[in-house]
Fold this protein.
Amino acid sequence: MRIFAVFLFALALAVPARTAGPKPLFNGRDLAGWKMTGPGRFAVENGMLKTEGGMGLLWYTGRKFGNCTIRVVFKTASPNANSGVFIRLPEPPPDPWYGVHNGYEVQIDAGGDEWHSTGAIYSLAKVSRRAQKPAGEWNTMEISLRGQKTVISLNGQVVNEFDGGQPVPERKAWYEPVRGPRPDEGYIGLQNHDAKSIVYFREVSVLE
């Protein structure tokens, strides 16, 4: 019996620990842990977040995130519905434009050009391909943060790889993000862009 117990103990040491799965940040019931800034709102409807009005920003208050993979499962109600996922926000956002100018916006917009379509880092890093499904179908976006490196996958395809120190286009308009470095970690958020853009989110989770 003692030999068998020693064998089981050695086997337990030899088998690597199971990796924990993604931690859900949206519980499917209410906005616990989230805070809204700006106009419009996010409604909870049938276990999903639904954008209403805008331009506003819903951000997760629990903590900052770095060196992780953020997974967002979303669908749009129309081909040109506009939204975004904010990353690397250094401080709690006092207004909806804070995310644009102090963090990065990972765009959701099937109708945008390569600098502003789904998977682009708004106005800073263009997509290498378009991989969003038609309106009404669910999409899975994964945003991997590794130091200053950001890798964005959409429906299993890498669509963008961006390093915080790489050259970016010249800023041409006030609504384009202020250029400059962002932190390795920060708060994350979701954008409700305008009243005509309806986007649903059924999962927002983080794998560290």
The domain at 23-207 is CATH 2.60.120.560 (Jelly Rolls). The helical segments are 2-14, 98-102. Residues 150 and 171 are 20 Å apart (CA to CA). Residues 2-14 form the longest helix (13 residues).
